Amino acid sequence: MVAQRGCDCIVAIIPGIGASSMHGAVVPIAKIFVSAGTNNVTFSSIPQGYQDLTLVVSMVGNSSYTALQYFIQLNGIGTGYSDTFLYGNGASAGSIRDTSAGYWYCGYFAGAASGYPGSAVVNILNYANTTTYKTMLEKWAGDANGSGQPGIRVGLLQSTSAVTSMTLYAAQGNNLFGVGTTFSLYGVRTVNQ
Amino acid sequence: MSMYPIASALATGSNDLAFTNIPQNFTHLQIRVFLRSTNSGAQDFNYVRINSDFGSNYVSHGIYGNGSGAVSDYYNARSYNWLTDIPGSSAAANIYGVAIIDILDYTNTNKYKTIKSIGGYDANGSGTVQLASGLWMSTAAITSITCSSGNNVAAAGSTAQLYGITTA
């Protein structure tokens, strides 16, 4: 089992599916459905038998915010995160970085609190490696019919530990992982996995 | 559309990352790179060279973010496709860059080949993230790919995974 309740409520859990050639390289591990607003969800006991992890996020909020973000924390580690990202907002392109943070700041979903889902794909390469720091790549997009932002982000966690758990936090709190939000975790296997 | 693993390359600190005899029965290729360079300096770059073609047949364009602004640049008539920045040998230890590279219609012999890459690295106060395009001006089917750092020597622990993507 690799998905569990956050501090609030998660309703449906799909058990992890073992790696198999029938799934090709991308193997579904677990999916979390949000049926009542919550601040965080966790994937725990992540299998170590893949090369990479891919997290697919479809986020809707339940309150009135201009834009929503989510945070990622690995293994319950609360320090050592940084990231650099590139975005376009319909008027200009820009880049910002975060340093010495307690999470990876992720996404920027315009209108996600108003029924426009934000989407993101996060790849954590070589996640089970125990000799290198962890690096992730995120692509995200949110569009609210007049405002919006796509972006790409690279993030560093200064930890050599294998990734065994992943907690996603609603950055603005207030149970802003709203009903209909989904988080899907996949393993990407390479040869001989 | 399904993705299947084809091969894995691992650097020992004295080699680049290369794939040869690539099977021709997929529609697209994807390479997932975890890479650090042994080149001097805090930053190097990740490139792709196809079919051991050392001619000036490659062009790249990119947009990248460096933490303070968005920048676009290009490289013409190179002997490789420049794709993304990665840490060099003087970067802080244990930091590796990553890239996910897609090469569409790699067996088609009627058109040039186009590469898309998203990648970069972060070093807690430095680093870049890039979206890059690469053109290889050849109609040959792709049978081998070298994917490595600017000095052709990937740091130990660097890996690249090659995948084939099918269609209906």
Helix and strand arrangement:
The complex is a heterodimer of chains A (193) and B (168).
Chain A: E1 3-4, E2 12-14, E3 26-33, E4 40-43, E5 52-59, E6 67-74, E7 81-88, E8 93-101, E9 104-110, E10 118-125, E11 134-143, E12 148-157, E13 166-170, E14 182-188
Antiparallel strand pairs in A: 1-4, 2-3, 3-14, 4-13, 5-10, 5-14, 6-9, 6-13, 7-8, 7-12, 10-11, 11-12
Chain B: E1 2-10, E2 17-19, E3 28-35, E4 43-50, E5 58-65, E6 70-78, E7 81-87, E8 97-104, E9 113-122, E10 127-136, E11 145-149, E12 159-166
Antiparallel strand pairs in B: 1-12, 2-11, 3-8, 3-12, 4-7, 4-11, 5-6, 5-10, 8-9, 9-10
Descriptive overview:
The complex is a heterodimer of chains A (193) and B (168). Chain A has strands spanning 3-4, 12-14, 26-33, 40-43, 52-59, 67-74, 81-88, 93-101, 104-110, 118-125, 134-143, 148-157, 166-170, 182-188. Chain A is mostly beta strands and 193 residues long. Chain A has one domain (3-188): Jelly Rolls (Sandwich), CATH 2.60.120. In chain A, a hairpin with a 4-residue loop joins strand 7 (81-88) and strand 8 (93-101). Chain A is globular and about 45 Å long. With 168 residues, chain B is an all-beta fold. Chain B has one domain. Helices cover 0% and strands 55% of the residues of chain B. Chain B has no helices and 12 strands. In chain B, the strands form 2 sheets. An 8-stranded antiparallel β-sheet of chain B has the order 1-12-3-8-9-10-5-6, with no helix packed on it. The relative contact order of chain B is 0.38. The model of chain B has no long low-confidence stretch (mean pLDDT 96). The A-B interface holds A 24-26, 51-52, 80, 82-88, 92-97, 99-100, 123, 125-126, 129, 131-133, 135-137, 139, 152-156, 158, 160, 188-193 and B 2-8, 32-34, 63-70, 94-100, 118-125, 127-131, 157, 159, 161, 163.
